[in-house]
Amino acid sequence: MTLSKLGLDAVLVLNVLWFGAGAVYFGVAAAAATKLLVPRQARHSSLFKTVSASIRFLGGMNLALAVLSSAMLFNPTLFPEDKQVAVLTSILALAHGTQFAANVPVALGNGRGDAPWPVLRGLMLFIFCMDFTLMLANGAVAVHR
User: Fold this and answer.
1) Where in the sequence is the domain holding 22, given as residue range(s)?
2) Which of 60, 70, 103, 137 has the fewest CB atoms within 10 Å, i.e. is most exposed?
3) For residue 111, what pLDDT is reported?
């Protein structure tokens, strides 16, 4: 196994785990994810149920990305050319990058105290950092291809 193949496999395993966790958290456990986003004092509002129902689409998108990563990992003959792998890992980098970028303005609001949810602590900080790291990792694989 070459170093390039090992790096690709490692990044794909991380994608499967990360996107799979996102599928479960935002799709199956949407109420728990909503508690992360909605302050305790606002959880009695009817909007809590609306937010909880609307973030389920994140679960679906994460599931699709987990399946794509799984297909690339477990059946590499589907994408036999380096250019195909480069395009797909670029798209995966973009998926992580957009999730990271969407939280940047929120994180900047944390410093002013007007952010809608806490990005710079706890689970959200972990999510924020993982999306950034996986964006870089997928991007590096894409460039190396």
Assistant:
1) 3-144
2) 60
3) 66
